[in-house]
Q: What sequence folds into this?
């Protein structure tokens, strides 16, 4: 079992400007880490293998968090599967190979709850990995993330390093991607309802039937869990990171509409895909390490809506 990390050791957060990476960065700062390293994609393209190796050679991080990834919602995943597969595999392989080459001691790889089979029992236990077919709308992305888990396990087996993987549930919070083309469901709903209210539109159309159930976790809770796992968990099995509760998309839509003050009609376009009927993580293993979430959904969603209003002019579009 590993102990708390040296707060003075160089820590590289790959993807530190994204929703996940920026939250991890904040949590590490709060936990007292003093030598954090972050580079934008313009400064270091993680799909360029030689550049990644040069960076590791020059900066020599002792610990690494892999939060960098090409991500998107159901439409983006379904229409651009090769992009999601290729770019994520390149990022992961380049980072892990360089981390092995330059003796990174502790690495945390962050994946996604989409790694689990489409028809796996609910809630989803870590043991359900690779027990059935994936959801076809995001199977390419899921395969890339599964490859990352196997990469971590392989390094543990071959080199004996205390690398770990964590699979967060659906995340939301400040810094999210609100693009109408590539966003996930919750930021898409926020943008859609805010825009409809501002324009006085009488109805809003959402994808699917509204019946699928999803679990949502505030990104700052997720980041807190990551720091806790880095300090307290050392095992070959990936760890689910979530809150253990879910809601229907229709219920979530109603909460978002209420919070932004939209009172028009909501129409569900059932010609669009729903994705998995339910995706709820079993988080008993995480709780067994001594960590539990602290941010209640409505509270976290309300603060995210406020952040959206405050950053309309400068956020990623």
A:
């Amino acid at each position: 079992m590993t102990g708390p990390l040296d707060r003075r050791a160089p820590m590289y957060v790959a993807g530190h400007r994204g929703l996940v990476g920026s939250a991890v960065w904040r949590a590490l700062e709060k936990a007292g880490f003093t030598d954090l390293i972050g580079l934008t994609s313009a400064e270091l393209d993680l799909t360029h293998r030689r550049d990644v190796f040069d960076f590791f050679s020059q900066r020599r991080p002792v610990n690494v968090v892999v939060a960098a990834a090409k991500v998107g919602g159901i439409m983006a995943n379904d229409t651009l599967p090769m992009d999601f597969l290729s770019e994520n595999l390149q990022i992961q392989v380049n980072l892990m190979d360089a981390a092995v080459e330059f003796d990174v001691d502790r690495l945390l790889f962050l994946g996604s709850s989409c790694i689990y089979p489409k028809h796996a029992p609910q809630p989803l236990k870590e043991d359900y990995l690779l027990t059935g077919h994936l959801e076809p709308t995001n199977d390419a992305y899921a395969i890339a993330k599964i490859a990352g888990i196997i990469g971590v396990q392989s390094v543990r087996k071959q080199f004996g390093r205390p690398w770990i993987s964590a699979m967060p549930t659906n995340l939301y919070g400040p810094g999210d991607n609100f693009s109408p083309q590539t966003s996930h469901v919750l930021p898409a709903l926020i943008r859609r309802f805010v825009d409809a209210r501002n324009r006085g539109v009488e109805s809003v159309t959402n994808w699917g039937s509204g019946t699928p159930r999803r679990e949502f976790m505030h990104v700052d809770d997720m980041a807190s869990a990551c720091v806790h796992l880095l300090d307290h968990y050392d095992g070959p099995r990936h760890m689910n990171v979530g809150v253990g509760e879910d809601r229907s998309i229709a219920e979530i839509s109603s909460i978002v509409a209420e919070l932004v003050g939209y009172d028009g009609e909501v129409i569900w376009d059932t010609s669009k895909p729903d994705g998995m009927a339910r995706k709820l993580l079993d988080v008993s293993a995480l709780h067994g390490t001594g960590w539990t979430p602290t941010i209640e959904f409505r509270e976290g969603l309300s603060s995210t809506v406020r952040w959206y209003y405050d950053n309309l002019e400068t956020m990623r579009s």
Notes: The CA atoms of residues 239 and 286 lie 7 Å apart. The mean pLDDT is 94. Residues 81-101 form the longest helix (21 residues).
